[in-house]
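Below is a filled-in request sheet from our internal design queue. Each sheet records the structural input a requester submitted and the sequence that came back. We keep these sheets so that new team members can see what a complete request looks like end to end.

REQUESTER: design group, bay 2
PRIORITY: normal
MODE: inverse folding
CHAIN LENGTH: 309
BACKBONE (tokenized):
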């Protein structure tokens, strides 16, 4: 890629007929919240993927994905923390802004990080507004049920679309007994479904179900009018997977619900190793990769340098 790529058309200012640098998106319209609800009614599955930077946003745009989530999973996948808990609003905001620059038609969702919304409705609204106003997000996502439904309601009342997240909620995984499937007893499953219904009543426009038995998701899906987006939750109104998992960017294993659609770590490693080897061997840069200067100009330069000592 050139160091100075041409500017992409991004964000709400890009018209429906404009495309991102030749990507075949010209006639696609940005997905709206009413269209999201209509997709559940029509039975056409929604595709969501996490996305954390400008180059991946451009791929998400071109691949005709419906929703891009700047998940707080960025804490682990991009920033190297060992859980999602430490990531800050400022850290996620920077990623949301980068993704916004590369997206036009998918809905851009931003996760509200741990500690940035739970304490009060006012805190939740102020944080959500930052993600929309500064980051350019179309909607925000928060984790959990119970009192979190009140935070969702407060945000939705300000006109910001909100997405819920139930089942395995990584921000509070310690309280749930670790990163493990939820809703595997009737009591637990009922709690998951009740949380989802409360989030819908609070105004959430869709709800992520994570690591929940497929049969529980199926029952919940029938009860809910808003789309259920599954991750490790079986068939739903849509699916979400983490970018690094889909592409095989890490050497370590993924949860059982992850399907890897590529194994990109090995070719990336090999490319960097070949580059390093060629630099060390003096093979790169060869003349193909260097600028030339007119020999006369070069001679003049040598004379002047000699003269100036
Ligand atoms: O943070 C994240 O990536 C998520 C998805 C796994 C749904 O919340």
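RETURNED SEQUENCE:
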């Amino acid at each position: 890629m050139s160091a100075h790529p041409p500017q992409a058309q991004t964000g709400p200012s890009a018209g429906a007929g404009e495309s991102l640098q030749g990507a075949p998106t010209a006639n696609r319209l940005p997905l709206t919240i009413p269209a999201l609800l209509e997709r559940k009614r029509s039975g056409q599955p929604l595709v969501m993927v996490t996305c954390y930077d400008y180059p991946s946003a451009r791929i998400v745009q071109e691949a005709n994905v419906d929703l891009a989530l700047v998940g707080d999973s960025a804490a682990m996948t991009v920033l190297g923390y060992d859980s999602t808990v430490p990531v800050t609003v400022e850290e996620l905001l920077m990623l949301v802004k980068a993704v916004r620059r590369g997206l036009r038609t998918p809905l851009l969702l931003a996760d509200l990080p741990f500690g940035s919304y739970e304490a009060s409705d006012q805190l939740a609204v102020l944080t959500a507004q930052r993600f929309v106003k500064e980051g350019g997000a179309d909607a925000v996502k928060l984790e959990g049920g119970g009192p979190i439904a009140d935070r969702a309601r407060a945000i939705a009342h300000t006109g910001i679309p909100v997405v819920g997240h139930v089942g395995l909620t990584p921000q509070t995984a310690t309280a749930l007994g670790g990163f493990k499937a939820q809703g595997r007893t009737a009591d637990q499953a009922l709690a998951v479904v009740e949380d989802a219904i409360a989030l819908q009543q609070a105004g959430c426009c869709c709800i992520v179900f994570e690591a929940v038995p497929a049969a529980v998701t199926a029952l919940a899906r029938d009860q809910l009018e808003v789309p259920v987006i599954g991750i490790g939750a079986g068939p739903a109104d849509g699916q979400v997977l983490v970018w690094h998992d889909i592409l095989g960017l890490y050497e370590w294993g993924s949860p059982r619900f992850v399907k890897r659609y590529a194994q990109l770590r090995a070719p990336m490693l090999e490319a960097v190793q070949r580059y390093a080897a060629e630099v060390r061997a003096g093979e790169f840069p060869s003349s193909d990769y260097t600028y030339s200067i007119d020999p006369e100009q070069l001679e003049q330069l040598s004379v002047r340098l000699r003269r100036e000592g």
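SHEET NOTES:
- The chain is about 40% helix and 10% strand.
- Residues 25-263 form a domain with the TIM Barrel fold (CATH 3.20.20.60).
FILED BY: M.R.
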